[in-house]
Amino acid sequence: MSRLVYVLNGPNLNLLGKRQPHIYGHTTLADVEAECRALASELKLELRFHQSNREYEIIDWVHEARETAGGIVINPAAFTHTSVAVLDALNAFDGPVFEVHISNVHKREAFRHHSYVSLRADGVIAGFGTQGYSLALRRLATLIDEK
Ligand code: DQA
Question: Which of 80, 108, 118 should be mutated for ligand 1, with most atoms under 8 A from CB?
Answer without folding.
Answer: 80
